[in-house]
Amino acid sequence: MPTRRTKPLLAKATADLTDVDALMLDIGRRARAAARPLAIASTQAKNSALAAMADAILADEQAILAANAIDLKNAEDSGLAASFVDRLTLDPGRIAAMAEGIRAVAGLKDPVGEVIAAWDRPNGLHIERVRTPLGVIGVIYESRPNVTADAGALCLKSGNAVILRGGSDSLNSSRAIHACLVKGLEKAGLPADAIQLVPVPDRAAVGAMLTGLGGSVDVIVPRGGKSLVARVQSEARVPVFAHLEGLCHVYVDASADLDMARRIVVNSKMRRTGICGAAETLLVDSAAIGTHLMPILEALTEAGCVIHASPTVLKIHPGFKPATEEDWRTEYLDAIIAAVVDGVGRDRSHSPLFVPSHRSGDRRGSGCRRALLQRDRFGDPAAQCLDPVRRWRRVRHGRRDRHRHRQDACARSRRRRTTDLVQIPGARHRTGATLR
């Protein structure tokens, strides 16, 4: 039971939560209103807004850096990890890259109005399947200020209004960047509410977004670590576009040039350890133990990387930290890498279980492709997962064209919709399958 002392605190907490809910509902209503004119905005208007955004970001560089300095000071006082601080940090080069990224989005083909399928009915009726905006997208991401610009630009180009909720540790930086995006919208005559930033760090704002804000939000896109994606998937009451963690692997074959392999591995791990594209596991061919293993591990150690070694690696160098089962599924986002021998050779207990097929840590050099293709000729499923030459697409098999096969509609509706992994090119799939 609440006491006299706790009752005022509970009342204040309830009032604060109500304020956040009211704020988020208002943001949702404004986004929904802005989505209508944005959906029919011309390509020229959207590109003009994007160009103005890029110009504003460059013009307001000092204001963005000043806001970022506040976030960095708060992060330092909180004792956050170096990899986290790296993702949070902005400098003139990264700000210029943000502006360039927005200009690159402006150069993309406008997807709105594109006809992706068309057919004629026997009665002469012409039917088209046309790309249209989703409406309002909610993007929830961690403390990476550049995502504010990336997500805002992509949603604008696709004709969607967006509600951005970045990590609380980057709120000042995100506000400064968002102000530049609004300037671009206003200069092009587009609604300023088309790109909104949640202005409070309260986690209740995330919960409100996941409910859909009274029907205002059409889809949620989480961008961040495994825990963030898991929370969004479990709590969301609207569709979610999710992704997997970045368990990037680098495989070194015995045929690989040693100098090239050493440079690729060190670059993949140490260039920026806090990003999802950084390598987390090193797989070395057993035939390369005597030639490649130690020079590469020594190069990593000299660069400041900690090695978590498999039993085979420990036999060669007992000084490394022993790897555990958890290491093979850990996204370190730090100067740590797990090293295993025979991961893509005779020992197939590791790769098929732990290698994610959607990412790999190589730089797609010709030597990498040759090494991977060499393994693929032996039918190694792990090499197939890592092969950068292949393109994998997720294919969702749906109902066949209901207009052409109306008589079978009832039977098809009882079929369970399934998701298969299909190899492209050369893959054959059912009529009506759509690439996702």
Multimer state: single chain
Number of domains: 3
Proper CATH architecture of the largest domain:
3-Layer(aba) Sandwich
Radius of gyration: 25 Å
Physical arrangement of strands within the biggest beta sheet: 7-8-11-9-10
What string gives the helices and strands in order?
A: HHHHHEEEHEHEHEHEHEHEHEEHHHEHEE
Total strands: 14
State which percent range the strand residues make up: 15-25%
What does it look like?
This protein is α/β, with parallel strands linked by helices and 436 residues long. The chain has three domains: 196 residues, Aldehyde Dehydrogenase, Chain A, domain 1, CATH 3.40.605.10; 142 residues, 3-Layer(aba) Sandwich (Aldehyde Dehydrogenase, Chain A, domain 2); 44 residues, no CATH class. Helices cover 45% and strands 16% of the residues. It contains 16 helices and 14 strands. It has a five-stranded parallel sheet. α1 crosses α8, α2 runs antiparallel to α5 and α2 crosses α7. The radius of gyration is 25 Å and the shape is globular. The N terminus and C terminus are likely disordered.
Key structural traits:
Aldehyde Dehydrogenase, Chain A, domain 1, 45% helix, 3 domains, five-stranded parallel sheet, 436 residues, Aldehyde Dehydrogenase, Chain A, domain 2, alpha/beta, disordered C terminus, four-stranded parallel sheet
